[in-house]
Amino acid sequence: MSGNHFLLDTNIIIGLFANDHSVIENIKSHQGIMMIPSIVLGELFYGAELSGKKESNTKKIEDLARITPILSCDTNTARIYGNIKSVLKLKVLLSRKTTSGLLLYRRNTS
Question: What is the DSSP secondary structure assignment for residue 33, as one 8-state letter?
Answer without folding.
Answer: E
